[in-house]
Design goal:
Layout: E1 3-10, H1 13-26, E2 30-37, E3 41-49, H2 50-64, E4 68-75, H3 81-85, E5 96-102, H4 105-118, E6 121-127, E7 136-142, H5 144-160, E8 164-170, H6 175-181
Antiparallel strand pairs: 1-3, 1-4, 2-3, 5-7, 5-8, 6-7
Helix pairs in contact: 1-2, 4-5
Length: 182
């Protein structure tokens, strides 16, 4: 009975709201976020035990598949993933910096989870499609070799979904920049 999370996106707000309602009525899940994101899409983030999350996602996709864009189910997400969504991670200083950007919310979450499970890095933020025309990004920090390995793996994961946009690894970011990232 491990925790799981899922994100699904729909092309319209009205369908997204109906899908969120169907998910909540289908299984014992927690709706973490349910909101409109740029450009007029609707994103739902849920959590619960894997079987409940799977049932809820399948119910939404079955009932509203014509408006379904993308999504994923992630069993056993890294413990720092959800805090990174809300900017509540406690990162003590910026070492090397990794940034990865995707065209959607779902792929950046999968990429971020994969990155933090690949190397000893700390998630700084996972920004989900808010105010960015539907794009999303993750920032992370650690030793340069760990950050490079994490970003390399995240790029593979995002590329598999066809949603990779860009990435960067900065060995020693300037303190004038660091204050805006932490």
């Amino acid at each position: 009975m491990k925790k799981a999370i899922a994100i699904i996106e729909f092309t319209t707000v009205s369908t997204g709201i109906k899908a969120a309602d169907a998910m909540a009525k289908t299984a014992d899940i927690e709706i973490i976020e349910s909101q409109a994101v740029c450009p007029g899409k609707y994103m739902i983030l849920i959590a619960g035990i894997l079987s409940a999350v799977t049932a809820a996602v399948e119910a939404a996709k079955t009932a509203h598949g014509e408006r379904y864009i993308s999504g994923f189910i992630l069993g056993n997400p890294h413990e720092n993933l959800l805090p990174a969504f809300y900017g509540t991670t406690c990162v003590e200083g910026l070492r090397a910096l990794g940034v990865l950007e995707t065209y959607d919310a779902a792929s950046v979450v999968m990429a971020a989870d994969s990155a933090v499970k690949t190397a000893i890095v700390e998630l700084i933020e996972v920004r989900l499609a808010k105010g960015m025309c539907g794009k999303s990004f993750v920032t992370l920090t650690g030793e340069i070799s760990a950050v490079q390995a994490a970003i390399d793996r995240a790029k593979v994961v995002a590329s598999e979904a066809g949603m990779f946009l860009d990435c960067a690894v900065i060995a020693n970011p300037d303190a004038k920049l660091a204050k805006f990232l932490l």
